[in-house]
């Protein structure tokens, strides 16, 4: 695969998403990419790497349901009982591995962001926070607290992600769904770190 420039990767990721997704979901992908890039610029993250993660994030979202576990086995993607019950939750981890194999994406922060975008994770990096949020607040999203989360995301990625996770957890519980342990862990982590910057971030 060699070392492709970020510009080449952005083009290849866009093509990957376009070739694997319905028009509707490809349009969502582009809105998430624009939103993620905006958040990156607002919060001094790398806009191109953040956009790349967003272009990849749902690339595996339209696979047949029974294929996720098979691909996960084949590609040595770890998963637990939760994913066994809800194989679609593997679309992030599968998309990350797909982009590594097909596009040669080796950037760990980007791959983590793609993997984590559905349920979050404790100690998410900043690109991951931006992608998680962009997926929840892209312009076509419409639910009671979305405006509040949009406003928060302009000022503080962590506070906004806390709110977005709380919303997602409450919504899941309302519908009688079990919450993914990673979402609770992410929320606990954000509550504990309470606005303190990540290690390694100035
Ligand atoms: Fe997704
Ligand atoms: Fe998405």
Describe the structure.
The protein is mostly helical and 202 residues long. It has one domain: Hypothetical protein af1432 (Orthogonal Bundle), CATH 1.10.3210. The chain is 66% helix and 0% strand. The chain contains 11 helices and no strands. α2 packs across α8, α3 packs across α8 and α9 packs antiparallel against α10. The mean pLDDT is 94. The protein binds fe (ii) ion (2 copies). The site of one fe (ii) ion has 5 residues, from α2.
Itemize the secondary structure elements and their pairings:
Layout: H1 6-20, H2 23-42, H3 47-56, H4 67-74, H5 81-85, H6 91-103, H7 108-116, H8 126-137, H9 146-155, H10 157-174, H11 181-193
Helix pairs in contact: 1-3, 2-3, 2-8, 3-7, 3-8, 6-7, 7-8, 8-9, 8-10, 9-10, 10-11
The structure holds fe (ii) ion (2 copies).
Provide keyphrases for this structure:
202 residues; Hypothetical protein af1432; 11 helices; 66% helix; globular; binds fe (ii) ion
Q: What do the pLDDT scores average to?
A: 94
Global morphology: globular
Low-confidence stretches: none
Q: The CATH topology is what?
A: Hypothetical protein af1432
What is the name of the CATH superfamily? Hypothetical protein af1432
Number of strands: 0
Provide a count of the helices. 11
Radius of gyration: 16 Å
* Assembly status: single chain
State the name of the first-level CATH class: Mainly Alpha
What is the distance, rounded to the nearest whole angstrom, between the alpha carbons of the first and last residues? 33 Å
